[in-house]
C-alpha cells in the first residue's frame, strides 16, 4: 500500500492546515520506524515499513499527483491512500471514502489526473473561513492555539485508523475510526 500525505515542502508551511497530510505521515514514520528510501526520482520523500510506503510529495500541493504516480508505477502499487485537509468538514473530523470529487482541492485534482480517482481518501476536517475569498490564506495559515491543543491527539487517531486499514476493509475502518464531530473545549 502507498500512503500519501498531501502538503507543501518548506519550513514556512510545516504547521499550516494544508500540511495535515505531511503531519500524519511524519507521525506514521515514527510509529512504524519506517526507513527512508532513495527517492531522488520520485519528487518526494519516500519511506518504507513492512510492504508499505509512506510518501510526502515535494512538488508543492498543485503537482502532488506527479510524485504519487511515479512511486505507484515504479513499485507497481495497487492500493493508494491519500491523507488530506478538507475545508468542508469541521476541525478534527476524520472521514474515509474511496474515489469521489476533489472539492476544489488542488492536491486531489493533481492526484486524480495522474492516477485516476480510485484511491482511498482520509479526509481531515480543518473547518473553513468565514468568507470564501479567504480560503487560500486560511489553508496556508497555522492552526490556532485552541486547535493546536488537540492536534497531537487528532493526528494519533488518524495514524491508528490508517494502521487499522492495513489489515481491514475500508468499511471496517470507517465504522471504527470516523470522527464526525471533534469537541474543542
Summarize the structure in words.
This protein has 185 residues and is an alpha/beta fold. It has a single domain, classed as Rossmann fold (3-Layer(aba) Sandwich), CATH 3.40.50.1470. 37% of the residues lie in helices and 19% in strands. The protein has six helices and seven strands. The chain has a seven-stranded mixed β-sheet, sandwiched between helices. A hairpin with a 7-residue loop joins strand 2 (35-36) and strand 3. Helix 2 (64-75) packs parallel to helix 3 (106-115). The model has no long low-confidence stretch (mean pLDDT 94). Its EC number is 3.1.1.29. GO terms for molecular function: peptidyl-tRNA hydrolase activity; tRNA binding. It comes from Sulfurimonas lithotrophica.
